[in-house]
Structure to design on (885 residues):
C-alpha cells in the first residue's frame, strides 16, 4: 500500500501534483455535450423546439454560480451578495449598449463584457475589505447588506437604470463586427458558451495553481496559513475581486442576450438562487455551479409547468434535504459512487 | 411629529418581540435561524383564521398565537433543528432559507398570496389625543403589551434560576456544561419560547402591518439589523436597537420616502464595519 | 554574543489577569533552550506574543536586533520565526506534500503564482519531498492530512515549520498526546534538527526537556522564575519546589 520513501520517486511526486491539473475525459465530454446542445435545440431538427434562449440563461446562471464557487468553495468566504455584482454587470453592459445605439464601440458586446468585468472587479475590490474579518455571520450580513443597497440604488437611479421597469431595447452591435444576435438565440448561446469557457478555463488555471492551493489552505486553517507566511488578506481580496468581475461578466451576458436589464437581475433572490445552485451542484469542484444551473432550471421548468406558484416549496424541500443528508451536492454524490465503484474494482 | 415618534416606538417594540427569540437562540447556540420570521407568520395567520373565519375574539387570539408558534417551534427544534447545531453556518443558512421557502409556499397554498388584515375589536380602534398629537389606541395597546413582555423577560432573566442558567449558557456554553447545566434542554425551551414570542408578535402585527406569504423574507433583514446593532448577548441591546430601527424606519419612510430603504441597510453595514471583529464573536477575553 | 531573539520587559494582561509579567529574555543563535513551568504559567501566551498572535501590553520583542513588536504573524514568519502549535493546526483537506509545497512556495515568493499549475517547479517539489523524507513521513505524502495518525500529524507540524527555513523554531509541546509507539520518532526528529536553527522547546515533560535542552528558563505566574543551564536547573531546590508544589495540588 505505502510507497517507498525514496528520492527516486520525487519526479513522480511532481508529476502526481501536475496530473491534478490535467483535463480529464469526462471534462472534455462535458464541454462537447454543451456544444452539441446547440445543434439539438437550435431549431435545426424539425420537431424539437428551440431552447437556446433558455440555455443561454442557464450559462449565465452557471457562470454566476462558478464565481461563488471561487469565493466559497475554494476560499471559504460565505456570501449572500454575489447577485449584487451580477446585477451591476448587467446594468453596466445594458447602459453602455443602450447609449451606443447598437453601434460600435459602446454597443460592442465584448467591450461591454470588459467594462462590466472592470467595474465589478473594482466594486469587489472596494467591498472586499468588509468581508476580510469577522465571522461567517458577519460576512453573510455584510454581503447581503451591500447587495440590498445596490439593489435599492438601481431602483432609485431611474434616469440611468429605468427604475422598476428596467432597461429595454439593449441592442448590441455584432460580435467582432461579424455575428449579429438572432431571434433564435443561436449567436447568443454560442457567444455565452464561449465566454463561459474562457472564464472557466481561467478559474481552472487558478484553482490548480499555488495561488489556488493557498486559498484552500486559508479555508482549511487561516491561523496556520498565516504562520507559514501566506498573506491571507491579500489573497482573499484578490479572489473576491476576481470573482466579482466574473459575476459581472455573467450579468453582462444575460443583459446582452436578453437585450434588457431589470431590477430582477440584482434582487436578493438572485444571490440566494445562485448559492443554492452551487450547493446543489456541489461546491469546490468548479463544475458544481454549471451542473447545478442546468438541473435548477430544468427542475424549475418541469415543476413550474404544473405548479408554477409552488415551485418555491419544492426548492425549499430540496434545500432542507440537501443540508440534512447530502454532502457535496450532485457531484459529491457522483464522486462517492465512483469511488465505491473503483475501490471494489481494485480489490484483489 | 409626536405621532410619528409614537408610531415608531410601537413598531420598534413590536420588532423587539418579533426578534428577541432569534437573538437569544443565536447567542446561546451560535445558530442562525433565518426562518425565525416563519414562526411570526404562523402566529399572524392563526390570528387571521381564528378571527375572520371563526369569529374568535382578538384577545383570545393573542395567547393562542403564542402557544401555537411555541409548539410549532418546539416540534421543529426537536425534529429538524437539532441536527443543525454542529453544522457550518452556511448549512444553517441554507437550511433555514429552505424552510422559509417552504413556509412561504405552504401559506400561499392555503391562504393565497394577497395581503390580509384583521378587523380590530372596537375597543382598540380609534385615536386619542395625547399632548396635542393624535395617537392610535392600538399603538398604545401594542406599546403597553410589549413593554410588559419586556419587563417580564428581563425579570425572568435576572431574577429566576432559569434566567441565571440561561445567562451562564450564553456567556460560555462549555463552562456552563461543565457546571452541570443542561444547555441542550435550556436551548430547546428558549427556542420554543422565542418562537412563541415571534408568533405573538406576528399576531400583533396583523393590526399594524398586513400579513402576506413573503413576510418571513421581508422581515428577515429587520431581524438581522436588530441583532447586528444590538448584539446577541443581552436583551437590552436588541431592545434599544429595535426602538432605534422602528423610529428610524417610520420617520425615514415619512420624511424621506425616496431613500427610506437605504437608511436601514446603511446603518447595518456601517455598524458591521465599525465592529469588524464580528458581532457574534465576543471580543476575545 | 549575538542574540537571535530578545524580549525587554514584556507584559501582557487580560483584564485584571497578568499572563506575562515583565519578562526579559535573551536567546543566542543556535540555542537549545527549554521554557518550562507549571500549568498556567503563561508559556503559550508568551509564545503567542513572540509569533504575533497576541500583542503585548508593554515591552519590546527584538529579532536579530530588529524591533518586531508591532509586526504581523506573517511578517514574523517571513523574517524567520516558525512555530508548531500545541494543538495541531494543519490543513486537513490537503496532502502533506501539498502543505509543504505551499509553505516552501510562500518562502520563495512563489505563493501568488496563479497561472502555472501546482508542481511545475521541480526545485520546490524536490525540496518538499526531501523534507518529508527527512522527517519520516515521505510514505504518506499523498494521503489526506486529516486521515493521518496523530504522530504523523505532529511530524507534519514540524515539517511545515521547517519549510520556512526558520532561524528560530518554537516547539510547543511537540510530543503532547502522541501515543508511546510513535513518540520516539518525534524525539528523534527533534534531536536531528539543524544546528543553525535556534530552538525553544515549550514543555511539560521533564524527560524530554533534559534530553534536548542545554539551557532552561522557568516561568511561574507569567514571570521569569530562574534561568540557567540544564544541570543548574535540575539541581535548583526552588524549581523542585515549584514542581513538587504543583504535584501536591495535582494529587490533592
Amino acid at each position: 500500500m505505502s510507497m517507498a520513501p525514496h528520492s527516486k520517486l520525487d519526479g513522480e511526486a511532481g508529476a502526481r501534483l501536475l496530473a491534478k491539473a490535467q483535463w480529464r475525459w469526462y471534462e472534455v465530454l462535458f464541454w462537447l455535450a454543451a456544444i452539441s446542445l446547440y445543434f439539438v435545440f437550435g431549431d435545426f431538427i424539425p420537431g424539437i423546439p428551440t431552447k437556446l434562449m433558455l440555455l443561454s440563461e442557464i450559462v449565465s446562471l452557471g457562470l454566476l454560480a462558478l464565481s461563488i464557487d471561487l469565493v466559497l468553495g475554494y476560499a471559504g468566504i460565505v456570501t449572500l451578495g454575489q447577485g449584487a455584482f451580477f446585477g451591476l454587470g448587467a446594468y453596466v453592459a445594458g447602459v453602455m449598449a443602450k447609449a451606443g445605439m447598437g453601434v460600435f464601440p459602446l454597443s460592442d458586446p465584448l467591450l461591454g463584457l470588459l467594462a462590466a468585468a472592470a467595474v465589478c472587479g473594482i466594486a469587489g475590490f472596494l467591498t472586499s475589505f468588509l468581508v476580510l474579518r469577522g465571522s461567517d455571520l458577519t460576512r453573510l450580513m455584510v454581503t447581503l447588506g451591500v447587495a440590498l443597497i445596490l439593489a435599492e440604488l438601481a431602483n432609485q437611479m431611474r434616469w440611468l437604470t429605468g427604475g422598476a421597469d428596467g432597461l429595454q431595447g439593449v441592442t448590441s452591435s455584432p460580435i467582432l463586427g461579424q455575428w449579429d444576435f438572432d431571434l433564435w438565440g443561436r449567436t447568443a448561446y454560442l457567444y455565452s458558451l464561449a465566454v463561459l469557457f474562457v472564464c472557466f478555463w481561467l478559474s481552472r488555471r487558478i484553482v490548480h495553481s499555488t495561488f489556488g492551493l493557498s486559498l484552500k489552505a486559508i479555508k482549511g486553517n487561516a491561523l496556520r496559513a498565516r504562520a507559514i507566511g501566506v498573506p491571507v488578506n491579500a489573497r482573499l481580496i484578490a479572489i473576491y475581486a476576481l470573482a466579482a468581475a466574473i459575476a459581472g461578466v455573467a450579468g453582462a451576458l444575460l443583459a446582452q442576450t436578453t437585450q434588457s436589464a431589470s431590477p430582477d437581475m440584482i434582487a436578493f433572490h438572485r444571490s440566494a438562487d445562485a448559492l443554492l445552485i452551487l450547493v446543489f451542484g456541489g461546491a469546490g469542484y468548479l463544475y458544481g455551479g454549471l451542473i447545478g444551473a442546468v438541473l435548477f432550471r430544468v427542475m424549475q421548468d418541469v415543476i413550474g409547468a404544473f405548479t408554477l406558484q409552488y415551485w418555491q416549496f419544492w426548492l425549499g424541500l430540496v434545500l432542507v434535504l440537501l443540508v440534512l443528508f447530502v454532502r457535496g451536492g450532485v457531484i459529491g454524490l457522483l464522486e462517492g459512487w465512483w469511488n465505491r465503484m473503483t475501490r471494489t474494482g481494485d480489490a484483489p | 411629529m409626536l405621532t410619528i415618534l409614537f408610531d415608531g416606538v410601537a413598531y420598534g417594540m413590536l420588532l423587539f418581540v418579533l426578534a428577541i427569540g432569534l437573538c437569544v437562540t443565536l447567542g446561546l447556540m451560535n445558530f442562525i435561524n433565518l426562518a425565525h420570521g416563519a414562526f411570526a407568520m404562523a402566529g399572524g395567520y392563526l390570528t387571521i383564521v381564528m378571527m375572520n373565519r371563526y369569529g374568535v375574539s382578538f384577545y383570545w387570539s393573542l395567547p393562542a398565537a403564542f402557544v401555537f408558534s411555541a409548539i410549532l417551534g418546539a416540534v421543529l427544534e426537536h425534529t429538524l433543528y437539532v441536527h443543525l447545531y454542529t453544522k457550518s453556518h452556511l448549512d444553517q443558512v441554507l437550511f433555514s432559507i429552505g424552510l422559509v421557502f417552504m413556509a412561504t409556499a405552504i401559506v400561499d397554498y392555503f391562504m393565497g398570496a394577497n395581503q390580509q388584515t384583521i378587523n380590530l375589536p372596537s375597543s382598540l380602534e380609534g385615536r386619542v389625543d395625547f399632548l396635542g398629537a393624535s395617537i392610535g389606541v392600538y399603538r398604545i395597546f401594542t406599546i403597553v403589551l410589549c413593554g410588559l413582555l419586556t419587563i417580564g423577560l428581563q425579570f425572568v432573566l435576572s431574577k429566576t434560576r432559569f434566567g441565571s442558567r440561561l445567562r451562564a449558557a450564553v456567556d460560555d456554553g462549555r463552562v456552563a456544561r461543565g457546571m452541570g447545566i443542561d444547555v441542550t434542554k435550556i436551548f430547546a425551551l428558549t427556542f420554543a419560547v422565542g418562537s412563541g414570542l415571534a408568533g405573538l408578535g406576528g399576531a400583533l402585527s396583523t393590526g399594524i402591518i398586513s400579513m402576506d406569504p413573503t413576510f418571513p423574507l421581508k422581515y428577515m433583514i429587520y431581524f438581522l439589523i436588530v441583532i447586528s446593532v444590538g448584539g446577541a448577548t443581552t436583551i437590552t441591546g436588541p431592545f434599544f436597537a429595535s426602538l432605534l430601527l422602528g423610529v428610524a424606519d417610520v420617520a425615514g419612510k415619512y420624511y424621506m420616502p425616496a431613500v427610506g430603504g437605504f437608511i436601514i441597510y446603511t446603518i447595518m453595514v456601517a455598524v458591521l464595519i465599525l465592529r469588524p471583529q464580528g458581532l457574534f464573536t465576543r471580543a476575545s477575553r | 554574543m549575538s542574540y537571535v531573539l530578545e524580549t525587554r520587559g514584556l507584559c501582557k494582561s487580560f483584564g485584571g489577569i497578568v499572563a506575562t509579567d515583565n519578562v526579559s529574555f535573551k536567546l543566542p543563535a543556535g540555542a537549545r533552550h527549554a521554557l518550562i513551568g507549571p500549568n498556567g504559567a503563561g508559556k503559550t501566551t508568551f509564545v503567542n506574543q513572540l509569533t504575533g498572535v497576541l500583542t503585548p501590553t508593554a515591552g519590546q520583542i527584538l529579532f536579530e536586533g530588529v524591533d518586531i513588536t508591532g509586526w504581523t504573524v506573517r511578517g514574523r514568519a517571513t523574517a524567520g520565526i516558525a512555530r508548531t502549535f500545541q494543538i495541531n493546526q494543519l490543513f486537513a483537506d490537503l496532502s502533506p506534500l501539498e502543505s509543504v509545497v505551499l509553505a516552501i512556495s510562500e518562502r520563495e515568493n512563489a505563493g501568488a503564482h496563479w497561472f502555472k499549475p501546482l508542481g511545475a517547479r521541480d526545485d520546490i517539489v524536490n525540496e518538499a519531498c526531501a523534507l518529508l523524507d527527512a522527517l519520516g513521513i515521505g510514505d504518506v505524502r499523498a494521503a489526506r492530512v486529516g486521515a493521518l495518525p496523530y504522530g504523523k500529524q505532529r511530524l507534519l507540524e514540524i515539517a511545515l515549520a521547517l519549510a520556512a527555513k526558520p532561524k528560530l523554531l518554537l516547539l510547543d509541546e511537540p510530543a503532547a498526546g502522541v501515543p508511546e509507539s510513535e513518540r520516539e520518532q518525534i524525539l528523534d526528529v527533534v534531536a536531528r534538527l539543524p544546528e543553525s536553527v535556534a530552538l525553544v522547546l515549550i514543555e511539560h515533560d521533564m524527560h524530554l526537556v533534559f534530553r534536548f535542552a542545554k539551557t532552561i528558563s522557568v516561568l511561574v505566574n507569567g514571570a521569569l522564575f530562574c534561568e540557567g543551564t540544564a544541570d543548574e536547573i535540575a539541581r535548583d531546590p526552588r524549581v523542585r519546589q515549584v514542581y513538587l508544589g504543583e504535584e501536591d495540588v495535582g494529587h490533592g
Q: What stands out?
A: Residues 232-258 of chain A form the longest helix (27 residues). The interface with chain C takes residues 2-7, 9-10, 13-18, 20-21, 205-206, 208-214, 216-217, 220-221, 223-232, 234-235, 238 of chain A (CB under 8 Å). Chain A is about 70% helix and 0% strand. Residues 24-290 of chain A form a domain with the ABC transporter involved in vitamin B12 uptake, BtuC fold (CATH 1.10.3470).
